[in-house]
Amino acid sequence: MERFRQDIGPQGLQIPKEIAERCGIKEGVSAIIEIHRQWIKIFPEEAREEAIINSALIYLLENVGDAVRVGRPISKDGKWVVPVTLPYAMKQVGELVFSKSGNLILPESSPIEQILKRINED
Fold it and tell me: What fold is seen in the domain 49-120?
């Protein structure tokens, strides 16, 4: 996590362009701003493909292990669909579904138990 200090001026708070761009928020891109009680969350309205891949890999590493890989995300019906593959067997063992903003949609994704079962099939 990166932190920086900034004084709030008459125009309010401004995020430096280079920091916004590192987060996928570039000129002409819409951003979502969530205001919570003690903090503000700002993210691109549509997550970049790289961010989706990273989120999928982290989720799988935490829940399945490192035997699986992810394929290239496919934009489908306003969501990102990420194939989960078993590279040494060259087969797909599931898929993860993310919103366009990059949130994992568990009810639409393959359950971990199903992915593990498919990994252990001959």
Answer: Nuclear Transport Factor 2; Chain: A, (3.10.450)
DSSP secondary structure letter of residue 107: G
Mean pLDDT calculated for residue range 94-113: 94
The reported pLDDT for the residue numbered 15 is 85
First to last CA, the chain: 42
DSSP classification of residue 35: E
Residues 6 or more apart whose CB falls under 8 angstroms from that of 47 comprise 24, 55, 80, 98, 100, 101, 102
pLDDT, residue 66, reads 92
Domain boundaries, the chain: 1-45, 49-120
pLDDT value for 6: 86
23-30, long-range: CB < 8 A, 24+ apart: 24/48, 24/51
Under DSSP, is residue 97 helix (H, G, I), strand (E, B) or coil? Answer: strand
Local structure of 13: helix, strand or coil: coil
